[in-house]
Give the backbone structure.
Amino acid sequence: MRLLVRPSANIFRIVTGRRPVIPGQLSPEAVLKRALGMLDVDACDDLKNYVAGRIHPSGGFKDRAGNPDLYYTLFGIFLAEALEQHDVLNTTRQYIENEIRRHEPEGVHLHCASILASKLSDDKMLKRDLRKKIRTNLYSSPVKQQAYGKFVNLLAFYYSGDYIGLFKTGSQMKNLSGNETLPSTVIAALTVLHHTFGRKTADLIIRLQDFYDNRGGFRAVKSAPVPDLLSTAVTLFAFYFTGQDMRSVKPDCLDFIDSLYHEGGFGASILDPEPDIEYTFYGMLALGSLA
């Protein structure tokens, strides 16, 4: 019942001793806003044009094949919110509700749907059903990597205001494996999870530093031929989220991020320079984490 949400928030604070929310200045929205302060007027205009240009006639944001997709729409909405593109948000709202009702999303798309509906939809029953479905599937990861699955759960429960789901996610932390073979993206997700639920992050921070290429980028795995923007962005966000000092790497990181900027958007790496909406989000997340 929705009436239980606020009492559940209070119970969470009593039991854990901390708020189960991402502090305002650490939220993705706040970080993206910080990134805008690092761009000049022309770059902001190019970014707005790029974001608007990635909308499909259906109202969703396009994937790399040009098809509307809830996953890409999530990144597009975060960017449109930061840019205050209210016309974009209005256009996309109907697509989100139609897509959810027609296809009953599963896995990561279910979590994207819940976050998007929580942000934009006025349909309380739709949002309730999505929240209930995610909590029902709490013990089965939406992705192969369990730690990343719990991070996706954290975001979905946070945006939908499901404090019972957040409490259950926190109670599962001790069961997560932090083995040495994890990619940097998963270790970054674990770092955010651990910090959110009051667990130690020092060892995870040290492990993340080992993925640095000493030229401004972070690799997904240590054997990767080049660093990429996804790994760099989520690592920098994890550092910012946990209050790490990034002054020594900031100049080189800014150069690396800038090297992947093309006509209003960001590409994945020097081997994959074509911009898309997902990596444009990660480019801005990286900039905002360094701002």
Residues 177-291 form one domain. Strands lie at 261-262, 265-266.
